[in-house]
Amino acid sequence: MNSDATQKESFLLEMLNVSKEFPGVKALDGVKLRVRKGSVHALMGENGAGKSTLMKCLFGIYHMDEGQILFEGKQVNFISSRHALDNGVSMVHQELNQVRTTRIMDNIWLGRFPTKGLFVDEEKMYQDTIKIFKELDINLDPRQKIGALPVSESQMVEIAKAVSYNSKIIVMDEPTSSLTENEVNHLFKIITALKNRGVSVIYISHKMVEIEQICDEVTIMRDGKWINTKMVKDITTDEIINLMVGRDLTHRFPPKTNKPGEVILKIENFTATYQPSIKDVSFELRKGEILGVAGLVGAKRTDLVEAIFAERQVSEGCMTLHGKKVAFKNPKEAIKHGLALVTEERRVTGIFPNQNISFNSVIANIDKYVKKTQMLNDGQIEQDTAWVIDSMSVKTPSHKTRILSLSGGNQQKVIIGRWLLTEPEVLLMDEPTRGIDVGAKFDIYKLMIDLASKNKAVIMVSSEMPELLGITDRILVMSNGRLAGIVETDKTTQEEILRLSAKYL
Ligand SMILES: Nc1ncnc2c1ncn2[C@@H]1O[C@H](COP(=O)(O)OP(=O)(O)OP(=O)(O)O)[C@@H](O)[C@H]1O
Ligand SMILES: [Mg+2]
Questions:
Q1: Considering the entire predicted model, what is its pTM?
Q2: How far, in Å, CA of 445 to CA of 433, rounded?
Q3: Which end is more exposed in the chain, N or C (fewer Cβ atoms within 10 Å of the end residue's Cβ)?
């Protein structure tokens, strides 16, 4: 065996010199990615760097314009996802698209049901599914409908499906973006088990800690180009970040310039009893203040902001805005009174997928753009869209681009920009930086601080301790639907917040 052959053998997958162009965007420009057998390979880069596109080229969803893919040393070019699956390559997508009305086991065996004579062999299908679930420690009934499952569990089903195809390589595109800590731990156990069996994983995430925890090697991309590949143990988080953003990002948080003043919003005894929800929550929010909301998953932080925004009914309690009692019947009324809510599941609840960026930017405030003649003020729309693209650093060829063709993170930035455009007096944000790269996070923090400096108030629900401690003035801690305490950010610690989070468990 010559040395060249030995060299090739150590890589399970090699993608070489891959290029792909969309109208107006060179999404991939001569990228290379080499993945070893049985290793977890992180693929990192800012929003729009080309990570998902590269993986879709591998998986046969996109056809690359140029380049070569070697799998187990042989040249391949999968023409469809089924073709890739049949050859041992599978992908758990950033956006899960399962058929929601079918049963779990149908989803896994779709297109290759085991048969007995002319009929589908239900029993075998059930047993085969159970066998895989046992291996992966997944506790689900294969006969259950997939529609009822939370994201975390649908994702487990997707992984089980990958295993059922005896996949040699599994791509996971931002798998933990909506998982709880326990679910993340479970996923990591599964990844380790897969690795021990010699399966390779390509792991895409914006969460830096996960890279250190679970990945062996890392490839960094920027603007559609390959930048570097390193063993994780040989590179620091800061080095990865600097390679991703292409500049020295020494400060993760902009300086605070806001000074909290008079009370703008007062919440008294907010309670929602229709189901286990918030109970007896009271607090005050000041002009120029950024108030964080911390808590464990299930603490009902989303319920709290939704109740303020009248997205949810409260059964008890009252709200005072600018010194006047208010009771909004619906979000529309809340918006009229200067409130805005950036929801957690932006991709599900916030996007008009078939519309362009312009439409998606101005839709929350459409009345503003109707002229006396009943015509739309196109100039104003264009100007405001340009503001969204610019201030949120949205990576797009034009404001006429369909939002669906943006990268996942850039779609989210448009939705956040939409709400900032309404110039809210009180901005409610639920996990605003989830799925957003480190550079863009900084921009969002800056916009929040700017808003506060203009005497507006911000409430930010977040699970990321560093950003809660980095940019808020005070932190309200929820525990099991109740208010466990409100602390001054300058005087508190991570430990105190965690202790309060567990107060009513
Ligand atoms: N179907 C498409 N049509 C047109 N442009 C596209 C399409 N898919 C991706 N792009 C563009 O290609 C570039 C790379 O996008 P990609 O989704 O690969 O980024 P990403 O690295 O996965 O980002 P994120 O972290 O936000 O998910 C972006 O500029 C995006 O707008
Ligand atoms: Mg992506």
A1: 0.78
A2: 9
A3: N
